[in-house]
Amino acid sequence: MRGASDTMPLTRRRMVSAGGAALALPFLGRGAQARGSGRVVVVGGGFGGATAARFLAAFGHQVTLVERQPTYWTCPFSNTVLAGLNRMEAIAFGYGGVRAAGVTVLQDDAQGIDPERREVRRAGGPAIPYDRLLLSPGIELRYDALPGYDQAAAEVMPHAWIAGAQTRLLRRQLEAMEDGGTVAIAVPDNPFRCPPGPYERASLIAHYLKAEKPSSKILILDAKDAFSKRPLFEEAWAALYPDMIEWVPVSSGGKVVEVDPATMTLRTDFAEHRVAVANVIPPQRAGAIAETAGVADATGWCPVDPETFESALVPGIHVIGDACLAGAMPKSAFAANAQAKVVAGTIDALLRGEAPGPAKLINTCYSLAAPDHAFNVAGVYEAVDGALAQIEGAGGTSPVGAPADIRAREAEYARAWYATITGEVFG
Amino acid sequence: MRILAIALLAGLAQPALSQGAPPGAWSCTGCHGPHSGTTMDLRTRSAEDIDAALAAFRAGTRPATVMDRIARGFTLDESRAIAQWIADHARRE
Predict the structure, then answer these.
(1) Is the CATH number of domain A4-140+285-357 3.50.50.60?
(2) Cβ of B26 under 8 Å from any chain A Cβ?
(3) Which chain A residues have a beta carbon less than 8 Å from that of B47?
(4) Could you read off the pLDDT tens digit of each residue along chain A, which spans 427 residues?
(5) C-beta neighbour count of A315 within 10 angstroms
(6) Any A CB within 8 A of B39 CB
(7) Quick one: fold of B19-92?
(8) A424 reaches B (C-beta below 8 A)
(9) How much helix, strand and coil, in percent to the nearest 5, is found in chain A?
(10) Dihedral sign (CA A38, B32, A321, A25)
(11) How far is B3 from chain A (nearest CA, A)?
């Protein structure tokens, strides 16, 4: 397959003949060419890793994706499952589309990196050699950061911050709860995955409770005094769920300092809350392989070059998505997908001995306050003085006070975004 | 000397693009890729249409829910290049 055809523009005809189904192909643009011949290993098959793997394969490289799970449940839209608006199947994706794009997908556990030999050690077979390594490992929950909260506690007080079995568990608890119960959501300090996520979750759980268990309450215990899209959420809560959601900021004693699953108690500096359902979102750090590979710093996250996403600590290893410290860019699925395409272009250029082109990045995050009520925050980013900074004059949130039809249209856009991006990531 | 300076300037003005994608273009396809529906599907739009829309979003003269805030993050030349890139792809779909 390599040889003469490597210099051909990557036309749809050729890509189809290479074995991919038409809709499984990444959106590449006319200038794209499959002329690479490097070996790239990608660890982590989420929004960052799966996207990058598919694009790098389309550029002609030999790509191996190492991912533990055969199925990926997306955190985006997992709050709709909690609300009973979607089933788990709606947020589940396999790796058939990634394989169809020419990526070798290994369902395996990456256990270590040898940066000298340029190899990834894994549990289920021989080490995999690489010319460039891309880590997109997402987050690891810090079970050492909140007294009383460990893996066993998470089976009683689910975090549901890595979607899958935990999402199902929290949904079952909400279904089983009697009317009049209190649902607590404990929110960590920054930085953490999906900054507006806890508040979207409170909204959509309220949507469910309002219809099914209207005497119930939601208590948000927050380790912060501010949160993403706050005026928009508070406006929606007042209109849609009056007196149902209470937000307790850190300055009012909101920070949860200890949990007791046996008594369903959350303790703050000021009070103890016994609740019917406890959704405890603990502090986080980069996925475990980051620390093993030596690319995480003392914060638990990974410093990277803002243009190439190459680790500031270990050359030849790139880190994207929630795991990396991306300056002003938030830890979002949109950001991971956008970074993945930039890093795919960067790795492709580096492997062909060229300088990577200049990059700008966009982030857009929709939050649903109800099935027909959404709003967004957006930003445009570029590297300034060694860090990704938001471009002044651009970005910001949807306006407060927008009419209902605009909120409803944004909800449609949110669903369209989800369909589009998951198509690009998983095929 | 003058020729070298011009060449350098030209080089700075038109750096090599990663896989032909102008800065920011990759980010667009998360919403505007081939799977997107209705408003977000740009496959039937010409480069001129997309460029005009981006200019109007940037100027605030076209109603928007998010594209006004995104378009303001790009210069005239950048958004023109993105419009062309998207339209080039769309024609093949």
Answers:
(1) yes
(2) yes
(3) none
(4) 333 333 333 333 333 333 333 334 566 655 667 777 899 999 999 999 999 999 999 999 999 999 999 999 999 999 999 999 999 999 999 999 999 999 999 999 999 999 999 999 999 999 999 999 999 999 999 999 999 999 999 999 999 999 999 999 999 999 999 999 999 999 999 999 999 999 999 999 999 999 999 999 999 999 999 999 999 999 999 999 999 999 999 999 999 999 999 999 999 999 999 999 999 999 999 999 999 999 999 999 999 999 999 999 999 999 999 999 999 999 999 999 999 999 999 999 999 999 998 899 999 999 999 999 999 999 999 999 999 999 999 999 999 999 999 999 999 999 999 999 999 999 9
(5) 8
(6) yes
(7) Cytochrome Bc1 Complex; Chain D, domain 2 (1.10.760)
(8) yes
(9) 35, 25, 40
(10) negative
(11) 23
As a whole number of angstroms, the distance between CA A349 and CA A341 comes to: 12
Contact A121, A143 (CB under 8 A): no
Q: Is B11 on the interface with A (CB under 8 A)?
A: no
Domain ranges of chain B: 19-92
Q: Does domain A148-282 have CATH number 3.30.465.10?
A: no
Residue type, position A122, single letter: R
First to last CA, chain A: 22
Using DSSP's 3-state secondary structure scheme, residue A55 falls into helix
Owner of token pair 């007294």 = A147
Evaluate the omega torsion of the peptide bond into residue A191 and state whether it is cis, within 30 degrees of 0.
yes
Chain A residue numbers touching B38 (CB-CB < 8 A): 416
In the block, tokens 């977000």 appear at B40
Gap from B5 CA to chain A (nearest CA, Å) = 20
Tell whether B68 lies on the interface with A, counting CB pairs under 8 A. no
Kindly report, as residue ranges, where domains of CATH 3.50.50.60 are found in chain A. 4-140+285-357, 148-282
Q: What b/e string do you get for B51-71 counting C-beta neighbours within 10 Å, with b at 16 or more?
A: bebbbbbbeeeeeebbbbbbb
Contact B19 A59 (CB under 8 A): yes
